[in-house]
């Protein structure tokens, strides 16, 4: 019996290693976005949460499918894929899909970088900022396989949940979202 | 017995498929590879050069990531505190400078000078080392301990628990890990996670 439990532990461990090794990393060349504004953007509304406050955005009991993208204005690959999330939000809103963009910008950059970015790019998806230093708790809580690198994306509805530590093209996003809409 | 046979079959399948996927890098207890990389001071650096070291604080970091920049002073402080105790900092810049030009060798030299780096700042030329270690982002730390088998991975993760404010740090993960190694204690948190910039390969 002891051997049985011991073996089961090895199996679990191996499965864990295997899932961890299946991450599909694709990285793309991208120029940093120049953010140099003289205007005052501090009045742009922005919801700011710690992880407890963010939790309600990470689960649902409704029939909606949520696409939660973790990004920051300083993250070049994030900025590159952001328009695809905007496009998805527009194209699939009538199919009960909502995109939420969770910014990990530093709080001292909210007024100087994040808010101007939201305004200038006229972001239509809901943007919230996560301000919580205890990343060692909330990163594995969002997904055990997440190394903490961004961009990262979570797609879920009440039945299904999938986490992606990768960059997306629009086609890839569509392929994934369709698996949630069947 | 039947159960056990079945389990071994599962193990075999899992292991086979594991070998066909890309390696996900080191786990705690693995032996880390040595390297010979160009440093911003013009020399080439290998872990084997450090005959008297008890181990290493290997940090994947770069010029361009805001999280790395936020930690620069703390990385210098780590080296100053632990080099004399046998755990020098070895910084490796894992990004491909073709993708991230502000991380090229010239920019690395500039940064090392302006910030007064007391440790080697190495270019991972061809981006061969970070994938072997399994580093995915900057900054990311691997604390290694010299053993008869080689440099064994003892800690993987973040420097501490507050990237924004060094004075508000509650847990100094890397210091705790190295202190534990120095006093022969168990490392309480051998693995931690923090947000970082994806390594640009």
From TrEMBL, chain B:
Listed GO MF terms: antioxidant activity; oxidoreductase activity
Note the InterPro entries from the entry. AhpC/TSA, PRX-like1, Thioredoxin-like_sf, Thioredoxin_domain
Q: Where is the Thioredoxin domain?
A: 26-183
- Superkingdom of this protein's organism: Bacteria
PANTHER family hit by this protein: OS07G0260300 PROTEIN (PTHR43640), THIOREDOXIN-DEPENDENT PEROXIREDOXIN (PTHR43640:SF1)
The protein depicted here goes by the name: Thioredoxin family protein
User: What is the protein's species of origin?
Assistant: Gelidibacter gilvus
């Amino acid at each position: 019996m002891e051997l049985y439990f011991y073996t089961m532990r090895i199996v679990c461990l191996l499965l864990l290693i295997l899932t961890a090794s299946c991450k599909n990393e694709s990285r793309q060349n991208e120029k940093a976005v120049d953010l140099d504004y003289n205007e005052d953007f501090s009045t742009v509304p922005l919801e700011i949460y710690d992880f407890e406050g963010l939790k309600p955005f990470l689960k649902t009991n409704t029939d909606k499918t949520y696409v939660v993208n973790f990004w920051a204005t300083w993250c070049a690959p994030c900025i590159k894929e952001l328009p695809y999330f905007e496009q998805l939000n527009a194209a699939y809103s009538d199919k009960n899909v909502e995109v939420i963009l969770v910014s990990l910008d530093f709080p001292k950059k909210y007024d100087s970088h994040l808010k101007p970015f939201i305004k200038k790019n006229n972001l239509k998806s809901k943007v919230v900022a996560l301000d919580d230093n205890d990343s060692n708790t909330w990163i594995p809580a969002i997904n055990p396989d997440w190394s903490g690198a961004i961009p990262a994306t979570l797609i879920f509805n009440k039945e299904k949940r999938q986490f992606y530590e990768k960059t997306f093209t629009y086609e890839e996003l569509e392929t994934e979202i369709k698996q949630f809409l069947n | 017995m039947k159960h056990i046979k079945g389990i071994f079959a599962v193990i075999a399948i899992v292991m086979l498929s594991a070998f066909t996927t890309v390696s996900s890098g080191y786990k705690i207890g693995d032996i880390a590879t040595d390297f010979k990389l160009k440093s911003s001071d013009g020399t080439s650096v290998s872990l084997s050069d450090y005959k008297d070291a008890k181990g290493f604080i290997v940090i994947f970091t770069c010029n361009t990531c805001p999280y790395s920049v936020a930690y620069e002073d703390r990385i210098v402080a780590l080296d100053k505190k632990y080099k004399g105790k046998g755990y020098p900092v070895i910084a490796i810049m894992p990004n491909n400078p073709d993708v991230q030009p502000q991380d090229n060798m010239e920019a690395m030299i500039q940064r090392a000078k302006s910030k007064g780096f007391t440790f080697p700042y190495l270019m991972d030329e061809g981006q061969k080392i970070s994938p072997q270690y399994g580093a995915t982002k900057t900054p990311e730390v691997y604390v290694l301990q010299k053993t008869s088998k080689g440099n064994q991975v003892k800690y993987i993760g973040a420097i501490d628990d507050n990237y924004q404010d060094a004075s508000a740090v509650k847990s100094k993960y890397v210091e705790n890990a190295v202190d534990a190694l120095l006093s022969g204690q168990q490392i309480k948190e051998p693995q931690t996670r923090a947000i970082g910039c994806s390594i640009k390969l």
